[in-house]
């Protein structure tokens, strides 16, 4: 079965409204002969004469009268679909957005974000899901509306990215820990017992790479999959957690933070989304809410500064204190 030409709906709507081939042709800026050919196609498509001669004019058939209201509504609906989106009414918006974030993001930025969304669009619900990897498939497939993270090699080339903030790693220990007082040298830091955060379960990371040129090696006591877990362990023990500063501001409350005594590059945390949502007014509004929530300073400054490296010790078991 052949697909009907939907352009004929507009022609049929004008013909049934005007009741005249000449007036319909004039309204659609067609010649009378072109409009006559269009009427012939409509008759063939519908299997009905639609308009028949009555004296010097045309009158609609029962089938035409039946179609007139429906065709008019279809044309109006089609025009509405193709019209640019109107102004977003946040108070009337009912929608659920799914955000995929690394551990610590919700705890740190979630309260402000949820408060603003609830105040401006009470019908909007935010669903936060964990981010076990950097695969862009959930964005591409529409499972996730927004994502936060560091742009990497696995980020899809079509994915849009906008920087939210720059972050750096800091060391964190419980209050009263030996490292909560005095200067932190590379050897003093390395001599402690450490928690490594790795979603993939790796046994070393960038900090270990930075220590190697100094002849130092950390003692990794345990490996966990998230920053919140690492901080919970450090809070209740003498273990040392190394986590991103801004990403974990609220999670580190009541703990002692210090700048790492080795050179580590800053990371840029970005907002990621699929280009099909670029022009969506509600999505644009949500992106602005996330950006604003991340602008406010939330993380306490490290309470100690890194000590300049003057000597390179090779004794990884140097005592704390």
What does this 3D model show about the protein?
The chain has 10 helices and 12 strands. The strands form 3 sheets. The chain has a 5-stranded mixed beta sheet, with helices on one face. Strands 9-8-10-7-11 form a 5-stranded mixed beta sheet, with helices on one face. It has a two-stranded antiparallel ribbon with strand order 1-2. The longest helix is centred in the N-terminal third of the chain and has 21 residues, at 62-82. By secondary structure, the protein is α/β, with parallel strands linked by helices. The protein is rod-shaped, with a radius of gyration of 33 Å. The protein folds into 2 domains: 8-82, Winged helix-like DNA-binding domain superfamily/Winged helix DNA-binding domain (Arc Repressor Mutant, subunit A); 87-321, D-Maltodextrin-Binding Protein, domain 2. Residues 299-321 have low confidence and may be disordered.
Order of strands across the biggest sheet?
Answer: 4-3-5-12-6
CA(first)-CA(last) distance: 85 Å
Number of domains: 2
Sheet/helix structural class: alpha/beta
CATH class of the largest domain: Alpha Beta
Tell me about the biggest sheet?
5 strands, mixed
